[in-house]
Amino acid sequence: MVLSSNNEPLVALRRLIERRDARGDETCELCGSVLTAQHSHLIEMATGRLLCACDVCATSFGNDGKARYRRVPQRVRFLPDLDLTDEQWDDLMIPIGLAFFFRSTPQNRVVAFYPSPAGPTESLLPLEAWDSIVAANPVLRSLEPDVEALLVNRLREAEYYIAPIDECYRLVGLIRLHWRGLGGGARVWDEIAAFFDGLRKRSREGEADA
Fold first, then answer.
1. CA-closest candidate to residue 37, choices 22, 46, 24
2. Measured distance CA(109)–CA(60) in Å, rounded
3. What is the pTM of this model?
4. CA angle 153, 84, 82 (to 5 degrees)
């Protein structure tokens, strides 16, 4: 297994927090207008950076992989029937029970990251292992490249989501922020539980609106 540390998500998270004007308001990184608490994000294709964007700027970009930016969707979909056996999970060679997987257009492959106290760590994903999971779960073919991921939580009872990439990086940031000592401490596990409770709620709300 080949592992590499990737600091770009942490840089993106830090910029999302620090991008504020003199009044303390968060601002659009394209036009400078003040943003609401619930606003869109864009991903810069060449670098993987996440940018905060107003609705006007965000709607200028869709899912065109050739554009400089792509808009991060907001849908969250809980996948209660996802078929992922323990053997298939072991074949992915992820050392912990949390990870997210997405197709990277610049790299032309599916990449896998898992959170750690030091930030996100990339695992070299065995292509055959991923292909077998997709073959058993055709829903994964609907993932939008670069901006949507399969988010896996197998820390206790297994749960799986199609989630926006910014939410995956937010989980990484939560773990890095709250981890204490060797075992993480009670606070970080509470934060992880609350994060997934929020995802499940958003998924139910999305189903109700559909």
1. 24
2. 26
3. 0.84
4. 80
Q: Residue 59 burial (CB < 10 Å; 0-12/13-18/19+)?
A: exposed
Are the C-beta atoms of 165 and 146 separated by less than 8 Å?
Answer: yes
Q: Would you place residue 94 in the very low, low, confident or very high pLDDT band (cuts 50, 70, 90)?
A: very high
At residue 206 the predicted structure's pLDDT band, cuts being 50, 70 and 90, is confident
Distance (Å, whole) CA 51 – CA 72: 10
The alpha carbon dihedral of 18, 22, 28, 32 has a sign of negative
Helix (H) or strand (E) holding 14: helix 8-18
**Contact criterion met (CB below 8 Å) for 69 and 40:** no
Tokens 């799986």 locate to: 160
In DSSP terms, 100 is beta-bridged to 113, 151
Q: What is the DSSP letter of 72?
A: P
Reading phi first (left if > 0) and then psi (alpha if -120 to 50, else beta), residue 162 is in beta
Average pLDDT over residues 125-135: 89
